Amino acid sequence: MSGLHTENLTKRFGDLVAVEDVSLTVEAGELLCLLGPSGCGKSTTLRMLAGLETPTEGEVYINDTEVTDQPPYKQDSSMVFQEWALFPHKSVIENVAFGLKMQGMDKKARREKAREMLEVMEMGEFGDASPTDLSGGQQQRVALARSLATESPVLLLDEPLSNLDKRLKEQMQIEIKEIHSQFQRTTIHVTHDQDEAFTIGDKIGIMNDGRLVQVGPPREVYNNPKNKFVEEFLGETNFIKGSVEQVVSDGVVVSTGIGEPIRIPLQNRSITEGDRIHVSIRPEILSLEPATAETNTVRADGSHNFTATGTVTNLLYRGSTVRYYVDVGDTSMFVEKTVGDSSIDEGSTVELQWQATGLLCFDRSGDKIKVQS
């Protein structure tokens, strides 16, 4: 039984299509992170799931029961908002008990339940405090306790960590994952933060321009992005534009303009000479070493191994790693290494090396082209 399911969910505001034809299934007890850039429709989708927005088209099902036209208070879901929406004139325990009061639970029982949830969230000592006296992380725990207290089978989280600093955000990511493991509620967590989605989600759903582009486990989505948008959005990479110069028995020969043509073992037989493709070279497949020659070009051997010689133009220290920006001809590439290699500095001539089997390739329309292993 699915915990939550949508069919062709669409939302229009006049001529603006905010969400278009979203069909999504979240299994009971699963945590899905809905990920995408600002304005892609993920929060509007969540509001339709919560009953706060009425879909223009499509249906919403919770535990296989249609709830599309039901108001929020009749739906089996609870929501944590980006601003947490705590009542400043009520105490912490009154905030947590509020949903239970709306459900008709008597005062003594709801206070006991609220206190139990505060203990779970390690906030038991703050029951009589005002939410305005709490830190951001503490307010977040209260908002989660309030949603969990109602025991709704579906939990909806609308960018609940966006107002926290980096350290607290990382701490709360772990806590949300642990809370989900404990309570096993069907959960949709909306975020624009890729690291957050990969940390928390059992699955990730990528949205762009109101459409659901790809859904799958984090590792699958990262290793097999459906198109160029997913590849660009999930993480920084080196994109190089190329043109198919020749189709050969085991792939294609691609001219990139930064050295000799490179031979890529593509499986797609529909590729023809003259086709434009984009080649993604992720920094994790690159090695970086000092070079002895200053050729500023790309060279290839017969085994699909490539070497690019270039000049380091900039260094960016990122805590335990250093990002090196390297000019190869007229193209800038980057690679990251752990801190400690002092032999490479700005102005150094270096060699970048990689294998074709680690490349990701996309056609003119942005669809992925499969590379042979």
TrEMBL record:
Subcellular location as annotated: Cell membrane
Gene Ontology MF terms in the entry: ABC-type ferric iron transporter activity; ABC-type tungstate transporter activity; ATP binding; ATP hydrolysis activity
EC number from the UniProt entry: 7.3.2.6
Catalytic activity: tungstate(in) + ATP + H2O = tungstate(out) + ADP + phosphate + H(+)
Gene3D superfamilies: 2.40.50.100, Nucleic acid-binding proteins, P-loop containing nucleotide triphosphate hydrolases
Coiled coil: none
GO cellular component: ATP-binding cassette (ABC) transporter complex
Family statement drawn from the similarity comment of this UniProt entry: Belongs to the ABC transporter superfamily. Sulfate/tungstate importer (TC 3.A.1.6) family.
Official protein name in the record: Molybdate/tungstate import ATP-binding protein WtpC
Function: Part of the ABC transporter complex WtpABC involved in molybdate/tungstate import. Responsible for energy coupling to the transport system.
Keyword GTP-binding part of the UniProt annotation: no
Quaternary structure, from the entry: The complex is composed of two ATP-binding proteins (WtpC), two transmembrane proteins (WtpB) and a solute-binding protein (WtpA).
Organism: Natrinema halophilum
Membrane topology (UniProt): Peripheral membrane protein
InterPro entries documented for this protein: AAA+_ATPase, ABC_SmlMolc_Importer, ABC_transporter-like_ATP-bd, ABC_transporter-like_CS, ABC_transpr_FbpC, Mo/tungstate-bd_C_term_dom, NA-bd_OB-fold, P-loop_NTPase
